[in-house]
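Much of what follows relies on a compact textual record of a protein's fold. With that in mind, consider the following protein and its fold in token form.
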Amino acid sequence: MFPNVSMPNVLWELQGVQRAELAAAKPGEEAHVEKLYLASKGKLSAVEYDEARAILTTFLQYVGEPAALKRESMGVWVVLYLAAFTFLAWLLKHEYWKDVH
């Protein structure tokens, strides 16, 4: 819909300015980005930047849905309850149908 438009990197000061290396385009096709390289260094090293990005992503995921931790831990108990209820229902079915063959 919007060709050659990409979202800006809001962390560019930490990572540095990236430049695209374009692949050779076939006739009638548009060139595509083969890889990105750093044109100028940022405030953080590559390892520090990856660490900061991971921490920020984890924080934003938590802030987006703080109840997810409780919901996921409760899910285990719900599955165990359903398994126990299924087993009891199976035993009850066998009790009711034991005389019908």
